[in-house]
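TL;DR need structure tokens for one chain.
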Amino acid sequence: MANNSFFDKPKEQSLVKIEIVAKYFWAWAKIMMGQIKKVPLSKIPQNIAYVDLFSGPGYYKDGSKSTPLLILERAIAEPEMREQLVTIFNDIDSKHTHSLTQAIASLPDIHTLKHQPIILNKEAGEEVIHEIKNNIKSAPALFFIDPFGYKGLSINLIASVISNWGSDCIFFFNYNRINMDLNNPVVKKDMNCFFGKERADALRERLKSMQPEERESTLVDTISQALKDVGGSHVQDFCFKKSSASRTSHYLIFISKNKRGHSIMKDIMAKKSSIFTQGVPSFEYNQSQAPIQLSLFDFQPIDDLENMLLDEFAGQTLTMEEIYNQHHVGKRYISKNYKEALRKLEQQGKIIVHPPASERRKYKGEITFGEEVRVTFPPK
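>> reply
TL;DR here they are.
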């Protein structure tokens, strides 16, 4: 349950989270609706869905709109989406669902949606997921899971929500709570439910002698690997730091089975990073820092990327797109970082590029490096 002040006004971290979710929803929805057009009616469902398991009251007390209203407003403004989008909002707090129902009813032109929003008042867990799936059938869905705690949630539940074709999940979890409670005997059952008992026990043992920084990376890596093990082949995390300190408060984790969705979310998250080193994003947001560009003599990630590419693709010829898709998963590099590294290698004469720089156009003073540009790496 949220504390009484949570919905007074959105915190800066909440605004960043809302922006990331809303931007990805729009990009994902356009792709899904485009895919539906290409396939005969009998082959795939003709609807898409957005599901929020912890939807809140709709408006903050200061009048700011929360994610459900922003999603619905976008749908109302788009003729195709008005016909295809199914929305389901759930919250265990009946005051929230009552407030959200009123907020939705007051939206201009809400009646133009073919599928009116479904609002549920249930505890998050397998039971409500079953009811949601009965409503959306086999339609692709974007699930947003933003709990105040973790009760009722599990890696297996997230696996269930991404099981449909085209379905992705954005999961916001309280790192502090999970880190503190992992060894708390009072909530051991909930922790075992979240991770699975075997994985939770192994994690407790691994964390015993670790320092805070190593402990954090281990815990996040364990969650990411667990999500991959249950079908989320593409996982991307984004860290939120406390404004009053450099300690981590929350993580936003994206889970997908699709490389295109992963790349889109990676670019969205990258732009909200507070720190960039040689243009490489930190995938970290710190309210106390405006976005800054670092250039540290002892940490040059683009230089490191150049060396990795020469080593890992030695003797091969690939397109820029193939290089990116084969290499970026699990790394902080985004597409433009690969293009920058490849441009530098080309300038140094360390790779052969077709078409060469002299035949490619310029954009804002830079020689472009398109997705189909072919690169030949020298053998080792």
